[in-house]
Design goal:
- The chain is globular and about 50 Å long.
- It is mainly α.
- The protein has nine helices and no strands.
- It has one domain (2-143).
- It is 73% helix and 0% strand.
- One of its GO terms (molecular function) is monoatomic cation channel activity.
Length: 144
């Protein structure tokens, strides 16, 4: 029921209500990114909207993206492991989406620029290597 109410609020252009419903969902990060995606699609795919309406939708897309970034940043400050799991956890309520997929799909720059995403990318890139232990000079000295 909460998902339907949330989607109704977005489609009726009641972003203030949708924003408050986000905090009541099981995965507020995915919920805010779903809202951001809907506003993104409305702004870019609709041919029948005015320029003012398009700017309004783009503004709301950015607001929801920044809200999602704020949530994941706060989670990351409190518990890094939980925040990293939250990025890739599929949401049963929101169509099996995960936060990372949605953020990449709509190119949510505020969300993609968070410390949590950077940590996730470092983990993906370096794996279990502790890249902070060795500096470049130590590696070069050991090589030669």
């Amino acid at each position: 029921f909460i998902r339907e109410l949330f989607l109704w609020a977005i489609l009726m252009n009641r972003s203030d209500l949708a924003m408050s419903i986000c905090s009541r969902t099981t995965n507020p990060v995915v919920a805010t990114l779903v809202a951001s995606k809907i506003y993104h699609q409305a702004a870019t795919q609709s041919r029948c909207i005015t320029a003012e309406r398009k700017l309004e939708y783009l503004k709301k897309e950015k607001e929801f993206g920044e809200h999602a970034a704020g949530i994941i940043d706060r989670c990351f400050q409190v518990d890094e492991e939980f925040a990293l799991k939250l990025l890739t956890q599929e949401s049963d309520v929101f169509f099996k989406y995960n936060a990372l997929y949605l953020a990449r799909e709509i190119n949510s720059r505020p969300f993609l620029a968070t410390k949590c995403i950077q940590k996730h990318l470092d983990t993906e890139w370096y794996g279990n290597i502790n890249y902070n232990v060795y500096s470049y000079t130590n590696i070069m000295v050991n090589y030669y």
